[in-house]
Design goal:
Number of domains: 3
CATH topology of the largest domain: UDP-N-acetylmuramoyl-L-alanine:D-glutamate ligase
Largest sheet: 9 strands, mixed
Shape: globular
CATH superfamily of the largest domain: Mur-like, catalytic domain
Distance between the termini: 58 Å
Helix content: 25-40%
Strand content: 15-25%
Structural class: alpha/beta
Radius of gyration: 23 Å
Strand order of the largest sheet: 7-8-6-9-10-11-12-13-14
């Protein structure tokens, strides 16, 4: 496609969020004729970037004739296939790509570490980036977290990109090929985007390795049955590096007792799990994945150990907010599906008041039922429609109450808590009924705790 850039290749960008703006800037820089179209309003800061760079755009509508003139359409990950405009683009046979595909096209000789999975992506991506920075590599943190991949390539290219990749971004790749691919786990999420077929979602996640070559690495969770079953159907000619908490791995990583062991080439890294900055069992898996990725980048084991020991956890992901009169408050607002909440509850070792609720994506609460019965003394619902939560846990938890704001939820939780308890915001739902996004939900929760 690069050779087409000379004859004003027409690129239409659908959606003017972070990834859309990044794609527009990168396209323009490489001689494409770019038009940006957003069905809603474009944020002022993004609009300014488009105007400053002389990029044509529209907001509040999609002008069909302009869009259907495109040689290629970059579709933002938030726009589903069932969108009417997308259907028309497909019907006309115009190629649709994702922003990571465009970034890949112009990345030059840089390497990519790409991380996907249903849970733990942001944490693992951030940890790999932290290890790379500790080792003084010329790298950037891109993708679903931080900066748009395309924008980074356009404005400040690096030798290495550590990219958090969602299944939506993988849906529209063509040649995208990471040197190191990491697949953490696959659990049922976003099924509304995959015709409610788990198999479609699994296939989407596995696209991260579809273009890999013999010298590339695939780091994956050997304890995940879904991943293991899918691997048995594939014939791969790439370097497989599994990690496990259940079995010793010859090439990859495992935890035995309280020791993590990573062995890739001759160099071996071993360290105690008690030295990990990230606590909780699921984070041991995330830390192994990050450690393997760092080893394949030839980062010295001392640097890997240092970085794993001094990493600071992400905001809104199992974040300790405060302890008020003996009650600990934890912000896990980033838990937007039931599996994330399962991981959070699994790491609780005190009686827990659990704040649940929001926009339900077809949740199956039976997945957390055993942990809730074992650890939760009260559920505080925080959403506009809490009926499904009541149905799922009625008679299994002594107290279930409804609230409709972060402030109410925190006040009620504090009333229900005794000294030595923990209040855990881990909603298992999206946040759009009461908040702009999970970050705003987490921030309001933290502010309410500080006001107690």
């Amino acid at each position: 496609m690069e050779q087409n850039a000379a004859k004003a290749h027409k690129l239409v960008v659908l959606g003017a969020g972070e990834s859309g703006i990044g794609a527009a800037l990168l396209g323009k820089k490489n001689g494409y004729e770019v038009f940006v179209s957003d069905g809603g309003a474009i944020k002022d800061n993004y609009k300014k970037e488009l105007i400053d760079n002389g990029i044509a755009f529209e907001e509040g509508k999609h002008t069909e004739e302009k869009i259907l003139e495109a040689d290629e359409v970059m579709k933002s990950p938030g726009i589903p296939e069932k969108n009417e405009m997308v259907k028309k683009i497909r019907a006309k046979g115009i190629e649709v790509i994702s922003e990571i595909e465009l970034a890949y096209r112009f990345k030059g000789n840089s390497k990519i570490v790409a991380i996907t999975g249903s849970n733990g992506k942001s944490t693992t991506t951030s940890l790999i980036y932290h290890i790379c920075k500790t080792a003084d590599l010329d790298c950037a943190l891109v993708g679903n977290i931080g900066y748009s991949f395309a924008k980074q390539v356009a404005e400040d290219p690096k030798q290495l990109y550590v990219a958090e990749i969602s299944s939506f971004q993988l849906d529209d790749i063509v040649d995208f090929r990471p040197d190191i691919a990491v697949l953490l786990n696959i659990t049922e999420d976003h099924l509304d985007r995959y015709d409610y077929k788990f198999e479609n979602y699994i296939d989407s996640k596995f696209r991260i390795i579809e273009n890999q070559r013999p010298g590339d690495y695939f780091i994956y969770n050997a304890d995940d049955e879904v991943i293991e079953q899918k691997l048995q159907t594939l014939h791969l000619n790439i370097n497989l590096l599994p990690f496990s908490m259940k079995q010793e791995i010859k090439k990859g990583a495992y935890i035995k007792g309280d020791q993590m062991m990573i062995r890739i080439q001759e160099e071996r890294v071993s360290m105690s799990i008690y030295d990990f900055a990230l606590k909780g069992k699921h984070n041991q898996s995330n830390t192994m994945a990050a450690g393997i990725a760092a080893s394949t980048l030839d980062i010295r084991k001392e640097k890997i150990r240092d970085a794993i020991t001094n990493f600071e956890a992400l905001e809104h992901r199992m974040e300790h907010v405060a302890t008020v009169r003996g009650v600990e408050f934890i912000n896990d607002s980033k838990a937007t599906n039931v599996n994330s909440t399962w991981y959070a509850l699994e790491s609780m070792n005190k009686p827990t008041i659990l704040i649940l609720g929001g926009v339900d994506k077809g949740n199956d609460y039976s997945l957390i039922e055993d942990l809730v019965v074992e650890k939760v003394k009260a559920i505080v619902c925080m959403g506009l429609d809490n009926e499904k939560i009541h149905e799922a846990f009625k008679g299994k938890v002594p107290v279930i109450v409804d609230t409709a704001s972060a402030k109410d939820a925190v006040t009620k939780s504090f009333e229900l808590a005794a000294k030595g308890d923990v209040v855990l915001l881990s909603p298992a739902c999206a946040s759009f009924d009461l908040f702009k996004n999970y970050a705003e939900r987490g921030t309001q929760f933290k502010n309410a705790v500080k006001d107690l």
